[in-house]
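Weekly puzzle thread! Below is a chain. First person to post its structure in C-alpha cell form gets bragging rights.
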Amino acid sequence: MAEVPAAPHRTTGSTLLHPLSALLGIPLDQINFVACQLFALLAAFWFRIYLGPSHASSAVRHAFATLFGIYFAVFCFGWYSIHLFVLVMMNYGIMNTASIPNIHRYSFVVAMGYLTLCHISRIYIFHYGILTTDFSGPLMIITQKITTLACQLHDGIGRQAEELTAEQNRLAVKTRPSLLEYLSYLLNFMSIIAGPCSNYKDYIAFIEGRHVHMKLLEVNWKQKGYDRLPDPSPTGAVMYKLCITLVSLVLFLTLTKNFPMAYIIDNEFLDKTPFLSRLGYLYVVTQAAKPKYYFAWTLVCFDIAADAVNNAAGYGFSGVDERGAFRWDLLSNLNIWNIETATSFKIYIENWNIQTAAWLKRVCYDRAPWYPTALTFILSALWHGIYPGYYFTFLTGILITLAARAIRSNCRHYFLSSVPLKIAYDVATWVVTQLAVCYTVAPFVMLAVEPTVKFYKSMYFHMHILSILVLLVLPIRPQARSVRKPQNEAIQNYVKSKDK
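Winning reply:
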C-alpha cells in the first residue's frame, strides 16, 4: 500500500533530539520538524518585536532571516540541505546572466528539472522511500519562489505595462534583487521548512516595514475618515490558527487512523458492500483523511502552522474585511469553510492549497499559449513528485474540471430564476463536487498503480465515463481570459528598447 511506515529514528538531519524521539516513540525526522516549527514561531515573535523595521535596518532583518533559515534546513535535513542551496545559487546565476526575455524560461526549466531529478533520486536511486518530512518539501517551495520571481522579473523589465494583466502589473519586479535580498526571500526561517510561497514584492515590503501600510493604502484607509494608519497586531490571528492546528491534531488522532483509505479496496469490503455504500464510505474516509493534510502528513501542520509563523513575524497582513476587521490571510493556504461547502470543483481546488493554486495560475495558466487547464494540472502533478497516483489524480482532474465547467456554463442559468431552484442546484452540485473530489484524490493517497486501478474498477470508472459523456454532449464555451499580447511581441519590444 501507499503509506509506508517510517523507521522510528530515521533522519538525515540532527540527532540532538534522539532521546526525545525514543521517549515519545515518534520518528526523529518529525521531532526535528516540530522543534524547528516551534522555535520558528518563538523566533518570529522575537523578530517582530526586537528586529522590527523601527529597530533594525533591512539588511539586518534580511541577514537574520536568512541565517536562521539556513540553520533550520541543516538541522532538519543535514547534508541533504545542500540541494536547496545548489538550486538557489544556480538560479541566482541565471537571474544575473540570462537575457530578460528568457529569464523565466531558463529559471523554470532548471528549477523544475532539478526538483524532478531529486524526486527520482531520493526514491529510486537512494531508496529514500516515504519519510514524512524530507528535503523535497522545502525544495518544492523554493522551486515555486524561484519561478515566481523569474516570471515577475520578466514582467517588470521585459514587458510593457499594457501587455500585462492587472495582477501581473501589480506584482511586477522592476529591478534584479541583490544577493542578500534573493537569499532572504528564498531561505528565510519563516518559510524554508513548510512555506508557503509568497510574492517577492510583498516579502520585500514586509522586510522594509511597508507591508501593512501598503495593504491599508490599497483599501483607502485614510479616505474612510481615519487620521493615521494603525499598526495591527497579528497575535489574535496567530492564536486562532494555532487553535485550528490543535483541533486538526485531535481529529487526526481520533479519525484519520481509524478510517484508513486502504480499506476501500479491501477484497472483503468490495465483495460485501453495495456500490452506493462504497461511495458513502469513500466520502467518510476522505473526510477522515483531511485533518492529516490540515495538520500535514502526521504530526505538524505545514499549512496552518506555517501561516501562523509568518503572521507572528508580522508578515501576511492582507487588509480589512467588509466589517472593518483586520485580515491576516495573505499567506493562508487553506479555507476550510469554503472547502467543505464548495459547490464546484474549481472552488474546491482554489481553497485547498491556495498559494500553490496561485503559483500555478501565475507561472502556467496565465502564460500558457494553448490548453492552459491541462498544462496546469500536468505541472501540478510534476511538481508534487513522480508517484503514479499523483498523475492519476491530476489527469482525472483535467477531465472533471472541463466537464464541471461545461455543465455550469450550459445549465446553471436555468436554476437562477427562483430561490428554491437555486437551493436545489447548490445542494446537487455540492454533493457531486464532494464525491468527485473523493474519487479524484483517492489515487493521490494510494500513490501506486495497482491499488489505484483496483479502486477505479471498484467504482466502475463512473466519474471518468460521466465526464467524457458530458464533454461529448454539451457544447464547450471558451473561457474568458485576460487579453495580453503574444510573448514574441514582448521580446521584440525589449530588443527595441535595448537598441535605443
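Puzzle host: Confirmed. Bonus trivia for everyone else. DSSP finds 23 helices and two strands in the chain.
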